[in-house]
Amino acid sequence: MTVRATDYDAGLNGTVFYEIDSYGNPPASANGKLLFKINVNTGLIQTSLRNSLDREKTSQYFLPIVAKDRGDEQRKTTTTATISISDINDQRPQFIDVSSVNDNLVKMMQLFGLKSESCG
After folding, report:
1. Does domain 11-89 have CATH number 2.60.40.60?
2. d(CA 69, CA 5)
3. Which class for 100: exposed (0-12), middle (13-18), buried (19 or more C-beta within 10 A)?
4. Any idea where the domains of the chain sit in the sequence?
5. Across residues 72-98, what is the average pLDDT?
6. Rounded to whole angstroms, what are the CA distances from 24 to 42, 63, 93, 95, 105?
């Protein structure tokens, strides 16, 4: 994802750079490292930590961004980038407890007066 801001001033007053707004409570890992980074010149947002995002835990992140100009009396604006995490096939199938299924099936069959030698 890339954010972009425009400043129509001339020279350094119109040159924009980007930062993650540390006062805006950016998403971080358990050890405090930011989950995202931003290229100061292009506004390209990338993950900071390899394999750190899991849609089963968090499906969206809100990243506070600041765009500033390089003027002597620096001007800035802020926005929030909404980052939606796509699901990937990272979970394997799991068997349920077959013995409890058989036990429940036998109880249901007994409830309805049915008998089966193969269940239980």
Report:
1. yes
2. 10
3. exposed
4. 11-89
5. 83
6. 21, 8, 39, 43, 55
